[in-house]
Design goal:
The structure is a single chain. The chain is an alpha+beta fold. It has a single domain, classed as 2-Layer Sandwich (Alpha-Beta Plaits), CATH 3.30.70.1290. It has a five-stranded mixed β-sheet, sandwiched between helices. A hairpin with a 3-residue loop joins strand 2 and strand 3.
């Protein structure tokens, strides 16, 4: 059965996740995280992607990125996957697959979901019990978005730039967003969209994407409802 095409439109952010095979680790030492981030940064320059948020967990990765071309994200993930797997296999004298199948991605409505998605991503280490505060975790974009740290991978989205007229003000206002919990309904919708590689946004936004792509953007096919592969996704 052929794989269904992903929703990929230039200028629309995508929430991306890729897991280690069988939920096994894909990072084993500090250098591994650095090699992966370097691979992402170089591939973004080559294929035209802007990363707004990320987190590298022990056994999976989240990215929030906007593509410049239809296939920018696919080319990004293929390039990073090949380069990083070669590095891991060489470094640890292993062979075989590292990733669990292909990555998953959902297109999101920036005006409604950009900050919810970036907070969801950067709070992963807190939900996993690894740290008490996102600022304590080294391998995420929180330091860049909320503390003004320099991160050569991060490119600020227009929604982020609109938070204030200066970098310090933007970081402060972004940090303030973390004082409020993410609405459970919003989180559930993002998870469902990511699990099924659909679209997260308002009804009007979804109608526009459906018209632009000629494809259904929500679940609702006949038959028994499908159970989400993983209702947590961390």
């Amino acid at each position: 059965m052929p794989r269904k095409p992903r929703f990929q439109l230039p200028g629309y952010p995508q929430h991306i996740i890729q897991r280690g095979n069988n939920r096994q680790p894909c990072f084993f030492a500090e250098r591994d995280y650095r090699v992966y981030l370097e691979a992402v940064e170089q591939a973004c320059r080559k294929y035209g992607c802007q990363v707004h948020a990320y987190v590298l967990m022990t056994n999976h990765v989240h990215l929030l990125a906007t593509p410049a071309q239809n296939w920018s994200v696919s080319q990004l993930m293929q390039s990073v996957g090949r380069r990083y797997v070669r590095y891991v296999n060489r470094e640890y004298r292993r062979s075989g697959t590292l990733w669990e199948g292909r990555y998953k991605a959902s297109l999101i409505q920036a005006e409604r979901y950009l900050f919810a998605c970036s907070r969801y991503i950067e709070l992963n280490p807190v939900r996993a019990g690894m740290v008490d505060h996102p600022g304590e975790y080294r391998w995420s974009s929180y330091q860049a978005n909320a503390q003004g740290a320099v991160d050569k991978l991060i490119r600020y989205h227009a929604e982020y730039l609109a938070l204030a007229s200066d970098p310090d003000g933007r970081a402060t206002n972004y940090h303030e967003l973390f004082r409020h919990q993410l609405a459970p309904g919003l989180v559930d919708e993002m998870r469902k969209a990511l699990n099924h590689e659909l679209v997260a946004g308002s009804s009007q936004f979804k109608d526009g994407i459906e018209a632009a792509t000629g494809r259904r953007v929500s679940l609702g096919e006949p038959g028994r409802p499908r159970k989400d592969e993983d209702s947590r996704l961390y």
